[in-house]
Design a protein that fits this description.
Low-confidence stretches: none
Helix content: 40-55%
Strand order of the largest sheet: 1-2
Order of helices and strands: HEEHHHEEHEEH
Structural class: mainly alpha
Strand content: 5-15%
Largest sheet: 2 strands, antiparallel
């Protein structure tokens, strides 16, 4: 669910991406982008309405604050944001089996809206990361003109960029600067 949180933040929040201004999609394109993100981890894409995509865009803005706080070294602020989402969504674990899948854990809250369910699950995933020694694996890209977020799943935990494209941009600029 942390990968879903990353996807939602990167797809639904404005800023900069790979050296260019980024405006999140709107309307049907936003709903399609959300459905694409929600397929992370080989899940089937749920039907997403424009209203649900709008609600998830609001959640994504709050999730972005978690990554930004960790990047600033302010784990307390990140934890407070996550705790707020957990409380608002009434996230609680329960086992579920559907669509021919085996039993698996969900963290949906009461109410059962798509946005609320994913907000609860993403908040729970981030809570697990923040409550461990791996909290520094959440970050914001350090490439110039990019503010996309990432979760570092590398073995040595030294990731600084949201993508290989940003890493290559920075390395190429450094190479050119040395040669000039």
């Amino acid at each position: 669910m942390v990968a879903v949180a990353v996807g939602l933040v990167n797809a639904l929040t404005e800023g900069e991406a790979r050296g260019r201004p980024y405006e999140p999609p709107t309307g049907e394109a936003r709903a399609a982008a959300v459905a694409d993100v929600l397929t992370t981890g080989d899940r089937r894409a749920p039907a997403v309405t424009e209203a649900e995509a709008g609600a998830l865009a609001e959640v994504a803005g709050r999730l972005r604050g978690v990554f930004e706080a960790v990047t600033r070294g302010d784990v307390d602020a990140a934890a407070l944001t996550v705790n707020g989402l957990l409380a608002e969504t009434d996230a609680r674990p329960h086992l579920d089996r559907h669509d021919g899948e085996p039993w698996h854990i969900h963290f949906h809250g009461a109410g059962g809206t798509l946005a609320g369910n994913y907000a609860a699950s993403c908040a729970t995933g981030l809570a697990v990361v923040l409550g461990s020694e791996l909290h520094d694996r959440l970050g914001v890209c350090t490439a110039p003109h990019c503010d996309r977020v990432y979760v570092d799943t590398s073995r040595n935990g030294t990731r600084r960029f949201c993508s290989t494209a940003c890493q290559n941009r920075v390395k190429t600029a450094a190479f050119r600067a040395r040669g000039a």
